[in-house]
Amino acid sequence: MVAIAGQPVFAGVYLSGDYDGLRWHAAGADIVTSIGYLQVIAAIMLWVRLRRLWPFLATLALVAAETVQYFAGMDGALWLHIPLGVTTVAALAVLFIAVWRRPLLRRTQPPPAPAQPRRQEARDA
Protein backbone atom coordinates (compact mmCIF):
# COMPACT_ATOMS: atom_id res chain seq x y z
CA MET A 1 0.00 0.00 0.00
CA VAL A 2 2.86 2.36 0.84
CA ALA A 3 4.66 1.63 -2.43
CA ILE A 4 1.64 2.36 -4.61
CA ALA A 5 0.69 5.45 -2.60
CA GLY A 6 4.07 6.97 -3.46
CA GLN A 7 3.47 6.72 -7.19
CA PRO A 8 1.15 9.74 -7.52
CA VAL A 9 3.56 11.74 -5.37
CA PHE A 10 6.51 10.95 -7.64
CA ALA A 11 4.40 11.71 -10.72
CA GLY A 12 3.41 15.04 -9.18
CA VAL A 13 7.04 15.87 -8.45
CA TYR A 14 7.86 15.19 -12.10
CA LEU A 15 4.90 17.18 -13.40
CA SER A 16 5.90 20.13 -11.23
CA GLY A 17 9.19 20.36 -13.12
CA ASP A 18 11.63 18.18 -11.18
CA TYR A 19 12.80 15.59 -13.70
CA ASP A 20 14.21 13.32 -10.99
CA GLY A 21 10.58 12.62 -10.10
CA LEU A 22 10.25 10.61 -13.31
CA ARG A 23 13.16 8.39 -12.30
CA TRP A 24 11.57 7.84 -8.89
CA HIS A 25 8.21 7.16 -10.53
CA ALA A 26 9.77 4.56 -12.84
CA ALA A 27 11.59 2.88 -9.93
CA GLY A 28 8.37 2.89 -7.93
CA ALA A 29 6.55 1.27 -10.86
CA ASP A 30 9.10 -1.55 -10.88
CA ILE A 31 8.68 -2.04 -7.13
CA VAL A 32 4.87 -1.93 -7.23
CA THR A 33 4.74 -4.38 -10.13
CA SER A 34 7.13 -6.79 -8.40
CA ILE A 35 5.15 -6.63 -5.16
CA GLY A 36 1.99 -7.28 -7.17
CA TYR A 37 3.41 -10.47 -8.63
CA LEU A 38 4.48 -11.59 -5.16
CA GLN A 39 0.96 -10.83 -3.98
CA VAL A 40 -0.42 -13.15 -6.68
CA ILE A 41 1.76 -15.95 -5.29
CA ALA A 42 0.52 -15.23 -1.76
CA ALA A 43 -3.09 -15.19 -3.00
CA ILE A 44 -2.58 -18.56 -4.70
CA MET A 45 -1.29 -19.96 -1.41
CA LEU A 46 -4.38 -18.60 0.38
CA TRP A 47 -6.60 -20.19 -2.22
CA VAL A 48 -4.89 -23.57 -1.91
CA ARG A 49 -4.49 -23.65 1.85
CA LEU A 50 -7.56 -21.78 3.09
CA ARG A 51 -9.91 -22.36 0.15
CA ARG A 52 -10.52 -18.60 -0.22
CA LEU A 53 -10.91 -17.70 -3.88
CA TRP A 54 -11.90 -14.03 -3.68
CA PRO A 55 -8.44 -12.71 -2.64
CA PHE A 56 -6.89 -14.48 -5.63
CA LEU A 57 -9.45 -13.13 -8.10
CA ALA A 58 -9.20 -9.59 -6.69
CA THR A 59 -5.41 -9.72 -6.75
CA LEU A 60 -5.34 -11.12 -10.27
CA ALA A 61 -7.58 -8.31 -11.53
CA LEU A 62 -5.50 -5.71 -9.71
CA VAL A 63 -2.19 -7.04 -11.03
CA ALA A 64 -3.58 -7.24 -14.57
CA ALA A 65 -4.60 -3.57 -14.32
CA GLU A 66 -1.19 -2.67 -12.87
CA THR A 67 0.57 -4.47 -15.73
CA VAL A 68 -1.50 -2.69 -18.38
CA GLN A 69 -0.91 0.58 -16.58
CA TYR A 70 2.85 -0.10 -16.39
CA PHE A 71 3.15 -0.64 -20.13
CA ALA A 72 0.88 2.33 -20.88
CA GLY A 73 3.27 4.49 -18.89
CA MET A 74 6.28 3.07 -20.70
CA ASP A 75 4.63 3.86 -24.04
CA GLY A 76 3.66 7.35 -22.92
CA ALA A 77 -0.07 6.67 -23.30
CA LEU A 78 -1.05 9.08 -20.55
CA TRP A 79 -4.72 8.97 -21.60
CA LEU A 80 -4.72 5.39 -20.21
CA HIS A 81 -1.86 5.54 -17.71
CA ILE A 82 -3.25 8.27 -15.47
CA PRO A 83 -6.88 7.12 -15.05
CA LEU A 84 -5.83 3.48 -14.72
CA GLY A 85 -3.25 4.54 -12.13
CA VAL A 86 -5.93 6.28 -10.07
CA THR A 87 -8.14 3.21 -10.38
CA THR A 88 -5.41 0.78 -9.28
CA VAL A 89 -4.50 2.90 -6.24
CA ALA A 90 -8.17 3.01 -5.20
CA ALA A 91 -8.65 -0.72 -5.87
CA LEU A 92 -5.61 -1.66 -3.81
CA ALA A 93 -6.83 0.54 -0.95
CA VAL A 94 -10.22 -1.22 -1.04
CA LEU A 95 -8.55 -4.65 -1.13
CA PHE A 96 -6.26 -3.70 1.75
CA ILE A 97 -9.20 -2.53 3.85
CA ALA A 98 -11.24 -5.65 2.99
CA VAL A 99 -8.46 -7.98 4.14
CA TRP A 100 -7.66 -5.86 7.19
CA ARG A 101 -11.27 -5.70 8.37
CA ARG A 102 -12.07 -9.32 7.62
CA PRO A 103 -8.97 -11.43 8.32
CA LEU A 104 -8.67 -14.60 6.30
CA LEU A 105 -9.17 -17.26 8.94
CA ARG A 106 -8.86 -20.91 8.23
CA ARG A 107 -12.18 -22.52 7.59
CA THR A 108 -12.74 -25.16 10.21
CA GLN A 109 -13.97 -28.57 9.29
CA PRO A 110 -16.97 -29.77 11.28
CA PRO A 111 -15.86 -32.19 13.99
CA PRO A 112 -16.37 -35.81 13.10
CA ALA A 113 -19.50 -37.39 14.52
CA PRO A 114 -18.74 -39.42 17.63
CA ALA A 115 -18.71 -43.14 17.07
CA GLN A 116 -21.83 -44.86 18.31
CA PRO A 117 -21.08 -47.41 20.98
CA ARG A 118 -21.78 -50.91 19.81
CA ARG A 119 -24.39 -52.84 21.65
CA GLN A 120 -23.16 -56.10 22.93
CA GLU A 121 -25.74 -58.73 22.90
CA ALA A 122 -25.73 -61.06 25.77
CA ARG A 123 -24.65 -64.45 24.66
CA ASP A 124 -25.65 -67.21 27.01
CA ALA A 125 -24.30 -70.50 26.08
Explain this structure to me?
The protein has 4 helices and no strands. With 125 residues, it is mainly alpha-helical.
Give the low-confidence spans: none
**Could you tell me the number of beta strands?**
0
Shape: rod-shaped
N- and C-termini, Cα separation? 79 Å
Order of helices and strands: HHHH
State the share of residues found in helices, binned by percent: over 70%
Fraction in beta strands: under 5%
Structural class: mainly alpha
Radius of gyration over all CA atoms, rounded: 25 Å
- What oligomeric state do these chains adopt? single chain
In short:
By secondary structure, the protein is mainly alpha-helical.
Attribute tags:
single chain; 125 residues; mainly alpha; 4 helices; 73% helix
Task: Break the fold down into its secondary structure elements and pairings.
Blueprint: H1 2-15, H2 20-50, H3 54-75, H4 78-101
Helix pairs in contact: 1-2, 2-3, 3-4
